[in-house]
Amino acid sequence: MVSIRNVVPAAALIVSSILFASALSTPPVVLRRTNRIHIACSVVPKAMESTISMSKRKKNRKKRNQQLRKEQQQSSSASSSYYKSHYNFSNEREDVDEWLIRSTALILGEDETQQEEECSIKSGLPSQCASMQEYLYHARSVMKAWTHWNSRNTLGYRRDARLTVEVIFKRVLYVITHEETTTADAAEISELRPMLVSLVNIIIDAWANGNDVNEEAVAHTEGWLHFLQTGEMMDEIEEEKSLVVIGPDEESYRGVVKAYIRTQKRIYLEKALTLLEEMSSSSNHPNTIYPSTLTYNLVLYGLANAQPSSKKNAEIAENLLQKKMISSSQEENCAPDSNSFRQVISAWTKTGSRYAIEKTDEILNQILNDFPNIDPDASTFNAIMTLNLRLGRVEDAISVFNKMVGMHESGRIGTQPDIYSVNLLLKAMTRQRQHNQRQNLNEADDLVKTMEDTYHVHPDVQSFNIVIDAWSKSKLPEAVSRAERLLDVMERRCRNDSLAAKPDSYTFTSVLDSIARSEHSFHRAEKVFHRIEKLFQDGIVERPTIPVYNAYLNALVSSKDVDVLDRVESIFANMITERNANIRSYNTMLKAYSQFRSGRNGYFSRPLKAEELLTQMEEHSGIPYPDGYSYTTVINCFARSIVDRKAKKARQILDKMIQSYAAGNAAAKPQIYAFNGVLSASAHTHHTRFPEERLEAFTILVSTFLLLREWTEPNDSTYILFFQACERLLPKGHRLYEQVIETVVYSCVRDGQMSAKVMHALHNIAPDLAQQFEKIDAKE
Q: Does 265 or 287 have the greater pLDDT score?
């Protein structure tokens, strides 16, 4: 009789390890004969009828085996087609696949001597295994191989692999409890406990790993933890139990906690916290099971990344660190590591409060003073720097970086800055006080080129983009040339096979935006865009994206060159043909019509073309629907034009904008700029030769001013335009002139908009009234 205490033969273990390593290096795609495994999936759980009495098991074995063979014959055909439709076989993986097939068949007790349609599942220990220990070791290798395969495949196949691992374990348990050659009493089975627990832990990890952890996965992990605690299978009837309660270990609990955390749901985070308490007060195991550092870190990670972030999560995380891990680390072996502190600091930084800065500084100082053997890594410092930048504490962010560098230079190797740290430093340098803007940008520019020697990190595309964007927004006269110079550096690096700094869409848009802000000649924008196209043709960068085309259009529109409109229309038409135009593309084209220049000093618009394009956006499907910017641009286009009755046309566009918003176009909600555009159109109607047009413009002025209050509040520009319109549209001797001006002035004072600019405009049209208000202000 073979005893379960037999020592595992060394040769069997070596062969099993080699085959398992092969399975890990080449995950199976498979299975050719897995119809048998599919049979087992439906049969083995039903075959695992465990009873306390050995005689009762022997009495029912014959009847049970007959039932197994009958169910196998019924499901053989269906299971074969199922696996053929789900898996493709690869010749290169023939050996590994065959090993997994044979090994799984061995564990499940299939008879290899029979034909596929006649194969049966044998009970008891396989003849190829010399001992129960060898059988369990082989089962563990096969289960790990399936688990590895689970992590390398898509969602549907992952689930199949996990179910297969469960079936293998159930078969193992069935063999243990039905093996005729062993006494199979509770004492002997309990000696197998460590191996059985490790097998269950493999199942729990299979369900807990991956990015698709959902309610089903959590239910399976909870079910297997329940089995370890009570011996009850969650899908079995109440009377069917294992011969002995195996009892979970710390890794079992950790796997369930991992599943809870990976669901990223608040309800399971609460369960993870509850399970931590259960571990330290477990009554299902003779020895108390304390959470390890890894388990605590999983929960801390869940608290740090819970959505929405809250102060409560950060407080719970800090309480676990201070009271559970640090205070109890000596007796419970759960001393915190650098990851523990990093997760707590991350939880605080994500609250985004100024109080969080105090807490992170406190925890960081605790690491430096009380834990000399723990080096906070770059991610810890990066989280604190990010918080400081978010709150506008630029100098503090630089101070944190300097502290990290100082610790590294003092011998704490783990605190070495990474590329993300240096990029945060670049952000801080470019956001420093404006009176030193040129000096700050020059220092950031130099750091990008020297960071390899200074901090031993290679600059990436983000490094260059930060500095290029800062130059672009600086409005300094040398901004364009400095941005182009950095683009030169990136191009040289790419041509030398340093693809980490490969320019992307953000790089190109920043350079083009710098040209747009500086109002350089459109030839400079064309030169940069042709350079982008050349880089694409050389295979260095990706095809120019829609944002790059939009930035190119905007740079052309913003130039001071005459007759650039034809070039802009040509590019825009090409974008429409290639379906590369979005709402910003159309708005840029509307802007071009609004800022059209003609002649040496001419500055007029083309409102009819703008209105035509706006109508196309409203009526044609397949192109972007106009937003608030679209309508406002067309209104301003009429205000800048020299067409007749432009006040009426501008008001018509405003009415269309209101109708569009009422019809459900939320992006078309009228803002103050649209109303001011109509007021501007009214104010600039004074050149007309027809008095009735002036009267019409004044009527539109008053009605628009009254309508404005239904949507928003007037600003100082509103009153300046109103005063200008009154001066130009009403004769000074008119009886309404003084009355209207005085009424509007009181309204301006009530709204708190009597600024210096408004007072200056009031002096031009009603100097006496302006002096009167100045005296009142002086007395106050």
A: 265
Pick from 198, 186, 195, 182: which is nearest to 4 by CA? Answer: 182
Residue from 554, 452, 533, 540 nearest 491 by CA: 540
Structure tokens at 458: 């290679």
Neighbour count for residue 446 (Cβ, 10 Å): 12
pTM: 0.75
- Partners of 304 in beta bridges: none
Q: Residue 334, Cβ neighbours under 10 Å: how many? A: 24
The DSSP letter of residue 431 is T
What six digits make up the tokens of 284?
Answer: 């299902």
Task: Write the Ramachandran bin of 645: left for phi over 0, alpha for psi from -120 to 50, otherwise beta.
Answer: left
**Residue 439: which residues within 8 A CB-CB, separation 6 or more?**
none
Q: ω before 31 within 30° of 0 (cis)? A: yes
DSSP secondary structure, 356-387, as one string: HHHHHHHHHHHHHHH-TT----HHHHHHHHHH
Helix (H, G, I), strand (E, B) or coil at 121: strand
Residue 234, pLDDT score: 64
Alpha helices per DSSP H over 559-671: 565-577, 583-594, 607-619, 628-639, 646-662
| Burial bucket for residue 752 (CB in 10 Å: 0-12, 13-18, 19+) | exposed
**Residue labelled with tokens 């100097």:** 767
CB 661 within 8 A of CB 669: yes
Mean pLDDT over each residue of the chain, to the nearest integer: 79
Asked if 638 and 596 count as a contact pair (C-beta separation under 8 A), the reply is no
**pLDDT digits 0-9 by tens, 130-139:** 788 888 888 8
Which candidate, 276, 339, 351, places its Cα nearest to that of 315? 351
Provide the residue count of the chain: 780
pLDDT of residue 756: 84
Taking CA atoms, 544 is separated from 167, 486, 501, 521, in Å, by 52, 19, 17, 22
Asked if 65 and 114 count as a contact pair (C-beta separation under 8 A), the reply is no
pLDDT tens-digit series, residues 28-65: 333 333 343 443 333 333 333 332 233 344 445 445 55
Question: Is 697 in a helix, a strand, or coil?
Answer: helix
Nearest to 641, CA basis, from 607, 683, 676: 607
Whose CA is closest to 386, among 411, 440, 412, 423? 423
Kindly give the residue spans of alpha helices, DSSP state H, lying in 497-545. Answer: 505-518, 522-537
